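#onboarding

Welcome to the new folks! Below is a worked example of what a typical request in this channel looks like: someone posts a single protein sequence, and someone else replies with the predicted structure as tokens. Don't worry about understanding the tokens yet, we'll cover that in week two.

Example request:
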Amino acid sequence: MSGLPPGWEWTSVEDVGEVNLGRQRSPEHHSGLHMRPYLRVANVFENRIDTSDVKEMNFTPEEFERFALRRGDILLNEGQSRELVGRPAMFRDEVPGACFQNTLVRFRASEASLPEYALAVFRSYFHTEQFQRICKWTTNIAHLGAERFASVPFPLAPLPEQKRIADKLDALLARVDACRERLDRVPLLLKRFRQAVLAAATSGELTEEWREQRGYSADSWEMTVFGAALSG
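Example response:
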């Protein structure tokens, strides 16, 4: 384990927050007097909660108190494919009154750690495959395990530094996301450019000056191009 800056210390995940596994699905919970939305692994992407397909099941008032999500809770994929196990996202009240299923592990930060900083640590562990190294396999599913996750080492920084790190990281990752969005548009831009070039070529715009020098009209040039295309 590498050294830390002055004022930091190595601790464990369970020392800086509360770790819980969600409620298991079963047929008896498919209906009841206390139907509530719940999040499962299909809703948790990296730093994003997908609300396009949120299901419901029955949670008694006692169960709701145990499994209800609060703003700032961090959810991690407990059971997933190996490359996606431990994928984390923060709950920001995207689904008010939601609970969570046992395909997810919930981390609720204590006063020792800011949720935003804890999320940064977990995202780092996810990308450096530290979660993959501690997971266990059941058939084709990798399991993070609440107890194994709770015992993972955690680099605890002073609270003011945690906030500076979280704020700086948010700004940098926002720039990365903006660059990625621009790059994602490149294939479409290239397709449109190719279409424009082909349209200009077949309309005569691309070689207008050359044709004028040789006495071609636009109509005669189009017939020449299409004739060549048909004969080719």
